[in-house]
């Protein structure tokens, strides 16, 4: 295991072994940030679910009130009048089978994919390419829809998808370290609330085991889940 750098060690030393309120955690995170770029801030939540059971899968979306600090490049796979609707909404690339072929050929210069239901027969071929990257369109996250204009606008506005991994943890971005503390707190709270609302009916016992917040280069800071 590589030795931690002195900046990371100094940052870690400033984090006490305790849980902080969300406000305190965000204040501390901004204080200990040392990277020379605008780091992404991420919330991690350990959940008391077993994702191997389909009825305990936790996934969903949330539109962050203050966006993500970065405009996402959106691709729309559609046909007919939906092509113009997607372009008018601000999609970077719009097309049908031609887009499917480009992605099959290795083109991946985008952050999100929206598809209309009638195109899913073609889009289904991209499962092995888009699936591992979390980019496969899905009706549950609003990315398989005939309302492509709304879908594109929501993604551009800061819509975040979250999904529990096989270890029972959700990792999702909630903004950039250069955001105002108030805006970061509002975004993190919105994300945490969305995960709480997504609690499966079959989940027994304590649903949220722990919450932490971190930036790209920082150590994690434990957040008091009971207060949330």
Features:
alpha/beta; 9 strands; 228 residues; three-stranded parallel beta sheet; 8 helices
Question: How would you describe this structure to a colleague?
Answer:
The chain has 228 residues and is of the alpha/beta class. It is 31% helix and 21% strand. The protein contains eight helices and nine strands. The strands form three sheets. It has a four-stranded antiparallel β-sheet, with helices on one face. The protein has a three-stranded parallel β-sheet with strand order 4-3-5, sandwiched between helices. The two termini are 35 Å apart.
Topology:
Blueprint: H1 6-13, H2 22-32, E1 40-47, E2 59-63, E3 74-77, H3 81-89, E4 93-95, H4 97-104, E5 112-115, H5 120-123, H6 127-130, H7 148-157, E6 159-163, E7 169-176, H8 181-197, E8 208-215, E9 221-223
Parallel strand pairs: 3-4, 3-5
Antiparallel strand pairs: 1-7, 1-8, 2-6, 8-9
Helix pairs in contact: 2-8, 3-7
> Segments where pLDDT lies below 50 for 5+ residues?
none
How large is the share of residues in beta strands?
A: 15-25%
> Which term fits the overall shape?
globular
Biggest sheet features: 4 strands, antiparallel
Level of helix content?
25-40%
Write down the Rg: 19 Å
For the largest beta sheet, what order do the strands appear in spatially? 7-1-8-9
Mean pLDDT figure? 93
Number of contiguous helices: 8
Distance from first to last alpha carbon:
35 Å
**SSE order, as H and E?**
HHEEEHEHEHHHEEHEE
- The computed structural class is alpha/beta
What is the number of beta strands?
9
């Amino acid at each position: 295991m590589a030795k931690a750098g002195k900046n990371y060690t100094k940052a870690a030393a400033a984090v006490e072994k305790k849980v902080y309120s969300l406000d305190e955690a965000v204040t501390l995170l901004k204080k200990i940030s040392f990277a020379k770029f605008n780091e992404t801030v991420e919330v991690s939540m350990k959940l008391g679910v077993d994702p191997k059971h389909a009825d305990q899968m936790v996934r969903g979306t949330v539109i962050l009130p203050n966006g993500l600090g970065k405009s996402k490049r959106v691709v729309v796979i559609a046909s007919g009048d939906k092509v113009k609707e997607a372009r008018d909404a601000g999609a970077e690339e719009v097309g049908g089978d031609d887009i499917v072929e480009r992605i099959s050929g290795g083109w991946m210069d985008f952050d999100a994919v929206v598809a209309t239901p009638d195109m899913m027969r073609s889009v289904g071929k991209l499962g092995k390419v888009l699936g591992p990257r979390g980019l496969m369109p899905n009706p549950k996250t609003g990315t398989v829809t005939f309302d492509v204009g709304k879908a594109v606008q929501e993604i551009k506005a800061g819509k975040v998808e979250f999904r529990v991994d096989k270890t029972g943890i959700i990792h999702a971005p909630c903004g950039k370290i250069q955001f105002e503390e108030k805006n970061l707190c509002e975004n993190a709270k919105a994300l945490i609330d969305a995960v709480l609302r997504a609690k499966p009916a079959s989940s027994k016992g304590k649903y949220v085991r722990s919450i932490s917040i971190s930036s790209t280069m920082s150590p994690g800071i434990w957040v008091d889940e009971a207060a949330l």
